[in-house]
Amino acid sequence: MRTGAGRRAEGRGRGPSAAVATPVALSLGLLVVAGCLLGWYVPGALAAEAAYRSASFCAGRPEPEGTRECLDAVPGTVVAKEPGGGRGPRLPGLRWAADGGSAASWVRLEEEGALFDALAPGDRVRVVRWRGEERAVVAGPLRQETSATPVDGHRLPYAVGLGLVPLGGVFGWVAYGWARRPEGAARASWLVSVPMGCGLVLGVVGFFGPMVTDGLLDALLLSVGAAVPVLAAGVWLLRWRQARPAAPPGILPRLPGRERSFPGVVVGAVPYGAAGFGTLVAGPEGLAVAAGAEPGAARLPVPRSVAVVRVRPRAGEAGDWVVECRDGEREVLVVAAKEDLPWILGALQ
């Protein structure tokens, strides 16, 4: 037999449920993570930042180990300083000892700013504590936030959440497309790669938006603004690809003057795509699928309403070609050897 399509007709007719499960799981997983970040973590981080910014300094003597809602400005002395960089993601740090406190400890700063550059061992500082953690270091008019500051603590989770939303949506789009395509359709094709490309671009924009803008709304508007041209380009590419000629150069329809039988199958959620029919019959009356090449074998006619969309090689199967068709809203695949394609195209005219 010239094509392996007939041997696999029954397996392909069961539908691509196993293939759809992967993008569905990815879509749900990404959207759940994005929802947790945007709906729970980011509001919590914003609330913590607002409480920190509005907190006043505590009255009375500061508590070196304080966990109060007010700001404890604990005085102390710089013992040593350590620049950032080196091996690993090490942040710049100050080793300091609180007045009347226990042993010296390290406090890590967000970056090497003016305060870090100005300080030297022996200098006096005040370390601002809030809710049990050291949030900032103050020396005279200079102030610098530590790595534990709640200021801008929403940026990274907001960036990750905005970046995951389009990726989760794209995987859902892919799952929907695969669910409508019979097994055997080209899953690594432009119908998948174009949406994936759009999703990756929008994911990158969504991730970096909160990093380069000042507010939540600005980052969201940047993502929405980028989505308009990106999705427009994706739709244009899909339509351009669909408008390409149905058959490759050199494959022209031939009208059969008599019936011709050859191996092949019809795959799709249609009555004439039944399993066990591994022979195609092309003739003056159109195309039919048969249970065998012998006379009297059961046949199922392919309706004249079936329209050819395009012709392509079958992914992963040398020698097999696929005629992609539409029967109304349903996709129909006709799989056969390349040399039989002209008869199929002619019978479907």
Describe the fold and architecture:
The chain has 3 domains: 114 residues, no CATH class; 90 residues, Beta Barrel (OB fold (Dihydrolipoamide Acetyltransferase, E2P)); 88 residues. The chain is α+β, with helices and mostly antiparallel strands. The two termini are 26 Å apart. Helix 5 packs antiparallel against helix 6. It is 37% helix and 24% strand. It has 7 helices and 13 strands. It has a 7-stranded antiparallel beta sheet, covered by helices on one side. The protein has a 6-stranded antiparallel beta sheet with strand order 3-2-1-4-5-6. About 5% of the residues have low confidence.
Kindly summarize this structure in a few lines.
The chain is α+β, with helices and mostly antiparallel strands and 349 residues long.
Rg value:
33 Å
- The dominant shape is rod-shaped
Mean pLDDT: 83
The neighbouring-strand order within the major sheet is: 10-9-8-7-13-12-11
Q: What is the H-and-E element order?
A: HHEEEHEEEHHHEEEEEEEH
Beta-strand content estimate: 15-25%
Q: What level of helicity do the residues show?
A: 25-40%
